[in-house]
Amino acid sequence: MSSSVLVISIGLIVTQCCQCYTVPKPEILVYKPRGFSVSIPDETGIRLFAFHGKINKVIQNLHPGDLTKEVKYPVNGKWIFHDERTKLKVGDTIHYWMFVVKDAHGYSLDSTSFTVTDLVENASTNSEMPTRIGNPNGMCSNEINTICLQSLFNVTQSFGQLQSYVVTLKKKSEQLRNFIEQSPSARKMTISGRIPLEGLASSTVAFLLREKLDINVVVVSAERHFDGSIAFEVPTIDDKLEILEAAKSKLAYTKIFVH
């Protein structure tokens, strides 16, 4: 989604929803030698926290910033935007706005700013930072366990539904096969075109199937028509399907036709 579309979408959501929640003023911590964090308390119903900011540059409300991220999970009771690269000093100003999705409604904290007055210890030693376990999103182990269990449940549920669908499809396939097999022409086909005009019809069909399609099958019956074509019957519908499938590719550029 482009930035302009995202901004318009956010604007519509914020405009339409009732203001029953107010995005709180965040806690902002700036670290030595670099990095900072922006956090708000977790509340029931919050599903997303987005931060958009610029350093020492004014940012307009609902415009994407140089520092942008959507946070989808809370950590230790907080929704935290964490930047590890930006090096700030006392006197620098973070201009920002925030967006929160709560109970399927969107709420924003309009463009505001924070001026750095002091620096605290590096984020890696700060107790407010999420515990890292070597994953790229910086999620804590409890979050990952929850996500994995939910994913496993979803996969298991989907597999069960798929298995049920396969069983139903198999039953319908068997019913359709039984219905087709009752038809007098279910196992009958005709071969025509440039085929031998002499010899037993059944022997001719068996020869053509073997030489042209590499299929060895019993020809139950065969009858040559006045135009030289041969109507023949094979033991099963599966034999018929195999012959028709092979004929599509192996007889495509010949003058022999099976139908």
TrEMBL record:
<dbReference type="GO" id="GO:0030246">
    <property type="term" value="F:carbohydrate binding"/>
</dbReference>
<dbReference type="InterPro" id="IPR031756">
    <property type="entry name" value="BGBP_N"/>
</dbReference>
<dbReference type="InterPro" id="IPR043030">
    <property type="entry name" value="BGBP_N_sf"/>
</dbReference>
<keyword id="KW-0732">Signal</keyword>
<dbReference type="Pfam" id="PF15886">
    <property type="entry name" value="CBM39"/>
</dbReference>
<feature type="signal peptide">
    <location>
        <begin position="1"/>
        <end position="20"/>
    </location>
</feature>
<protein>
    <recommendedName>
        <fullName>CBM39 domain-containing protein</fullName>
    </recommendedName>
</protein>
<feature type="domain" description="CBM39">
    <location>
        <begin position="21"/>
        <end position="121"/>
    </location>
</feature>
